[in-house]
Amino acid sequence: MLKVGLLGYGGRMGRLIDEVILEDSRFILSSVYIRSGSSVDAPKGVCVTNDFSVFLEHCEVVVDFSSPIATSALLEALEKTPRPLVVGTTGLSPKDHSLMERLSQSIPIVYATNTSRGIALLNELAYLASQRLRDADIEIIEIHHHHKKDAPSGTAMTLAETCAQSRGLELDKVRVSGRDGAVGARGQDEIGVLSVRGGDIVGKHCVGLYCDGEYLELTHNATSRKTFAKGAIEAVRWVVTKQAGLYNMKDVLE
Ligand code: NAD
After folding, report:
1. Where are the active-site residues found (predicted)?
2. Do residues 156 and 193 lie in contact, with contact meaning Cβ atoms separated by under 8 Å?
3. Which atom of ligand 1 has the smallest separation from the CA of 150?
4. pTM of the model
5. In CATH terms, is domain 2-111+226-253 a member of 3.40.50.720?
């Protein structure tokens, strides 16, 4: 059985990942990292610790669905104690991304802002549609539950990056995340990324391609968070078989 270390155990995603691990005899939850001063009710035999080196020593692979601060600390700890890694946490800083790139020269890392199969496919479709409908205005709308802390969602940003890349654009130069007041006419290359928050919506992403006379909207709806947990464990199974490198969900599913 593959010994899995989990960062974010008590959270919405962490609880579901634990559930998926319990349902699959190929995996066992072996260690859980928690913030100092907090406590969790982990099953007997699981190492619960606020020390990253102890956490890493007790597992063969790490899965992280926590917060950018926790992910950042984990990445630093992995420099000393390398383990294959699956990161699902969103809202990471440019510094964390650079650290992840550097670490991926020595360990295999899957970084997936969304671990569902549908979103992996939506990314491919968005790439194709942005190229084929070259004159279309691209507007991405994401809707999530009111607990979500970061905006736009990591998934929306990945979709926007996909669209920008397919048109040879730099996302930083063309992204617009909200319009208010006398903003003027829409620029031709703009990629809008708009966030809505409310209720218990698990996650909805729509990539709209608006032309004169017609428009295409590609929409993904997540109806259960367990979809992400299952995808994350699929990525865990996959990443332990890989050489060092930085991978995404498309790599896992192919
Ligand atoms: P949550 O707030 O319910 O859970 C976060 C967990 O991380 C909690 O257990 C919290 O205690 C822990 N945590 C936070 N900071 C910590 C720290 N400094 N040290 C130790 N533990 C810490 O959030 P969630 O809904 O479970 O989402 C977690 C992350 O996963 C978010 O970034 C979210 O955007 C992302 N997410 C990704 C996907 C995907 O498919 N990749 C899907 C859903 C959510």
Report:
1. 144 (proton donor/acceptor), 148 (proton donor)
2. yes
3. 34
4. 0.91
5. yes
